[in-house]
Amino acid sequence: MPPLVAGIDSSTQSCKVVIRDADTGALVREGRAKHPDGTEVDPERWWSALETAVEDAGGIDDVAAIAVGGQQHGMVALDDGGQVIRPALLWNDTRSASAATDLVAELGAQEWAAATGSVPVASFTVTKLRWLATHEPDHAARVAAVALPHDWLTWRLAGYGPGTPDLDALTTDRSDASGTGYWSPVDDDYRRDLLVRALGHDCILPRVVAPGAPAGTAAYGSNQHALLGPGAGDNAAAALGLGMREGDVVLSIGTSGVVSAVSAHPVIDVTGTVAGFADATGQFLPLAVTLNGARVLDAAARLLGVDHRGLADLALSAPPGADGLVLVPYLEGERTPNKPLSTGALHGLTLATSTPAHLARAAVEGLLGGLADGLAGMQALGTRVGSVSLIGGGAQSEAVRRCATSVFAMDIEVPAPGEYVADGAARQAAWVLSGASEPPVWVRAGSTSYAASDADRAAQTGIRERYAQARDLTLAKL
Length: 478
Description:
The protein has 478 residues and is of the alpha+beta class. It is built from 15 helices and 24 strands.
């Protein structure tokens, strides 16, 4: 019987576990559990959810390797006894926005980009550490180690934690380390001077495990033998699960919106639009993130009193460009552009455009407009765009799929629905188990293609120009 591997996705909203055949990638069983709402969470709630999801999946006693993909940036601060000092601040907690502004002002955007590949925004761990040092100095003084969500969960799976606090056993991977704001994807090493600048003192940081190398051995229940993979940040794990290669671009619409592309070379963007992250295979994963993802669709559906199918039907009954009605969907602040305190705005409202169909279309196109800004920023830095795929909960909307062809003026592929992050973690676990130099080749289910028509391509310029004008007007009023 072929060996089994487990992939874990500890996301913002839930924990998913998939058990797959290590040789073929065939799904054997799976489980899930919900995470609490909020932008700060006690990490023990993640651990509890992981245990529930594992149980829901029928346990992991029979798996030979495990890896964890997790939400990026979250700050898990530990004292010298391995105790969590305070609830973790998540990527979407914007209270560290002023800390990000201060850090950029101190060194300059160009210096930050050269040092870490990115310019700090409120999402990054380094800004949350500065917030902690400024607002909770007693807590900051107790910090003996800083981990990210997937680092902490891997550590717990290895049997560590309060009572067994070997902080030197903390591990991470280069993809998640590259989102901290104190690791260099070019030098492949931590920038401890930047850590000290933020926190006020040095501390233990997780050892960065090479792609495909084991991070340790499990000590979870009766499973004391499974190899632990280095894990990955959620976007890098999804890229691994999708089998992305250089030139592949993925638009992911979940809680946030993400544009990511695999690159053979590091990317440095002094504007801060594109984050120059690493991937989980030894290459690079430049990406742009919007705070406003699928919840824009939730808000529009709630406002119009329809469900998501009804919203899609309304949107597709309006013409491309919604006759000039534009929604700038900064409903939760925004990260691209870096305006965490911004709000949304509706432009071009007339008697003719004040219909449910026009508003629905404007909501969908506004959501996609933010992602198009991110992709344009990546292309300006030389990122090659071959295929474009659309994934995430928001990608299940037929309106999102069809509107994307006109907003991007490109053919769009929609892979079969799946737990891409958990699948990527499972594929990494199989890679570690094999000891090979490359991850195994797993055959994925087919995708659905949406071709950009001549009408889509003709409409794209007007849609993008009107969105840019509305965006700039909205930002000018902040």
